[in-house]
């Protein structure tokens, strides 16, 4: 395929001055390859430069286009990594934390939240409650727990705050010494129960396996998509 400078600039999404900068930095081959083309040669005809390129595979262009127009992101590599991890875990009904998904995808947590909302909007995933976990602070291990355990933990955390308020009431003379002593004993026992653990939750998503965009995009990033699909 023979393309002039303006056509190549349009393909790369830059102006002609931008194309000059890319060439000066010797990045033209990489930039073309990023959108699915190999640079075969650069020739001059009648004082006009032309680029001879061949399509490596059209899938990459299509992936870029879907990321940009369907998912509103230019972070193609990061988004495809996120997409594979989010849908894989949802399909297996396994939890993955926001922080872990952000680290794997090489983006920040706020970007993951934005992409989750986009997948929800496209009906690729749907909300399905939460996963509940307990972190053992002594061993730094995590185990899944029930919703009831999670609620009990946070209820008891709230009770600790109530006990602190009651102690202040004793100092003001609003409750008796015996009442304050009982509160203190309860507070100590509760603090010992809670101090070496932390319970938290992670969003649970259900994957909609029959979603057409999910099916096509999954095949595309695996290199299995065909026009007939």
Largest sheet: 3 strands, antiparallel
Task: Tell me the strand order in the biggest sheet.
Answer: 1-3-2
- Regions with pLDDT < 50 over 5+ consecutive residues? 225-229
- Strand runs, count: 6
What portion of the residues fall into strands of 2 or more residues? 15-25%
Global structural class: alpha+beta
Order of helices and strands: EHHHEEHHHHEEHHEH
Number of helices: 10
* Percent in helix: 55-70%
Gyration radius, in Å: 28 Å
Residue-averaged pLDDT: 86
Question: Which overall shape is indicated by the principal axes computed on the Cα atoms?
Answer: elongated
Describe the structure concisely.
With 229 residues, the protein is of the alpha+beta class. The chain is built from 10 helices and 6 strands.
Describe this structure in words.
The chain has 229 residues and is an alpha+beta fold. 55% of the residues lie in helices and 21% in strands. The chain is built from ten helices and six strands. It has helices at 5-12, 16-24, 28-34, 58-69, 76-91, 98-105, 109-121, 147-171, 177-194, 212-222; strands at residues 2-4, 37-45, 48-55, 125-136, 141-144, 197-207. A hairpin with a 4-residue loop joins strand 4 (125-136) and strand 5. The radius of gyration is 28 Å and the shape is elongated. Residues 225-229 have low confidence and may be disordered.
